[in-house]
Amino acid sequence: MIKEFRYGKRVREERKRRGWTQEHLATVAGIAPRTVARIEKDEVQGLESLMAIAGAFGVEIKDMSQTVQIAESKPLRSLMVRRAEDLRVCLNRAHDSGLHRTLILPMRRDIEERVEELTEAIFSDIQYMSPDETDILNSWIASVRDSVEELQARGFAIFTIQDCREGFIGEPGRKKFIENWTTGYYLVILEHSCFSVGGAIHRFSEACGDGVVALHGWLRQEQDGTELILRLFANELMINSAETASVEFCQACFPNGPTGECLTEDYLQKITGISKQQIESLLHSLSERKPHLVRPEQRLRMRSCTPS
Fold first, then answer.
1. Which of 41, 64, 150, 185 has its CA 20 to 30 A from that of 131?
2. Residue ranges of domains in the chain, CATH in brackets
3. What is the predicted pLDDT for the residue at 59?
4. What is the C-alpha separation between 224 and 257, in angstroms, rounded?
């Protein structure tokens, strides 16, 4: 638990008690009105501005302070579930609460419905699981194994984030402090999908800490009072130029840059499910019909690139 000194609430209360507007306080203190507004929102706590406000009120700075206890969060952990047994690892890390949802683009109705059915079959009982109840956990993992395998066979994956933090739970006035409250987030995604949030494009990768933090922030925006927009792409080839104009590619997720990553034969075979020969045949056919779309140097680069 962190103790933090804040001044916004007391400054606002003292100003209103005197019947002053923010503009009047700013004039008396000799600072800008927007500075007063930001101090009252606890957005800034500059010492000189606080001293000026305290002088305007005729009080000491300490008389305007309020001690606030801030819950701490532990470093996030993440895992791509590649087999049903991996769910045991997730539950060992986070079992107090859980959230599951699908992050998939619109697709054929029958496929989307089947994915939802499989997701429900896997996660409907997860809230009853505990790492301490080994027999029940083993039985549950065995029962969801076929569903996990079918999801993977259909080109989907389960990306998970585990959150451990201090916090308060309960109704207002009756909240209880919890030292290590864990939450597991389970996201059903397309196997090769990417996302953008917070100014960068990421893969769903446990190796990219920045991507995990950004995705976790999007998942918690309601609790944290923030507003973040997440954009989802089926794969790297589907990231449009309008999107890349406003955000950057994460260097950890795309070490060779987006062009090099997208044009490797290995990657194209993964996302299309067709062979190298078929890919070359399609490109050759396309170049003959519409040569302006496939330039010779693109075909050469594709053949010479190696996966990262």
1. 150
2. 2-70 (1.10.260.40), 77-191 (no CATH), 263-304 (no CATH)
3. 93
4. 33
